[in-house]
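User: I'm writing a tutorial on reading structure tokens. Could you give me a worked example: one chain, its sequence, then its tokens, then a sentence or two explaining what the tokens reveal?
Assistant: Sure. Here is the example chain.
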Amino acid sequence: MRKILLLCFTALAFSSVAQAPTGWWNESVFYEIFAANLTHPAEVNAAIRGSEVVYVTIGFPYKTKVWQALWVPFIDAVIQSCRRHKAKLVFFDNIYMYDRDHLDGMTEDTPIRPTSEKGKVREIVANKVKQAHEKGEVDTLIARAADFFGPTPNSVLYGLMLQRLKEGKAAQWLANKDKVHNFTYTPDAGMATALLGNTTDAYGQVWHLPTDRTRLNAEQWTEKMAAVVGAKPKLQIMSKGLMVPLGWFMSDIREIREMVYRYDRDYLFDSSKFEQRFGMAATPIDEQIQTLAQ
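And here are its predicted structure tokens:
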């Protein structure tokens, strides 16, 4: 029996990966949920001990200072423990380190040029994961997702769009309603990440997780969602200019401001490499909305 470790903050990520189709796991897998302080290297090491594959899907609080303080020591501890216990490492990543001028058609070869402080942290962390593999210390891979569509606290499409429309409120969007933006459906991300971790030749590479490439802007997303939940397609835009004074009083807005460039230009995440290798396409958008609207 294999021990598969998922380092995460919530059961959502655990269930997404753990419930991958049975055939994707090579044999029976033992699941156990236990608490650990992941800022303590000793507890990270204790959690990893005996694991064959370690999935890092953790998301620290969305604050730049927290990321700068915690991410690098955490990933250093994970890599060191994986090396010590001969465990493979699957790192679940985002696109924050990509060059903001190359977001329309992002692939695994998109230039790296972070212009946000959060993006700079993610670049350092991703480089450490890749270098551990290149040095022959740990078998690693990076599973990268676009912005999420799923019942998570930081999903704009779910929390500010779908949920608000269900409540009879106007959907809310950032920066520019006319720019295209696609999203990775969280169940697809979980299943694809599980598949990657169980595929020997996937290691040593970056993979974009399956994401529907339909080009939709904010108004089109709103219309689709409103039709499903039986609401009027009302939409409000929070402009970049408005975010400045709001950020003086609202820390969440202040933290989002440096990342709002993702919404002021076309944003299209391409997962062709994964789809061609594994024959797994993203769940169609209409099906995603129907499921999450229930």
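What the tokens reveal: The longest strand covers residues 2-7. The chain is about 40% helix and 15% strand.
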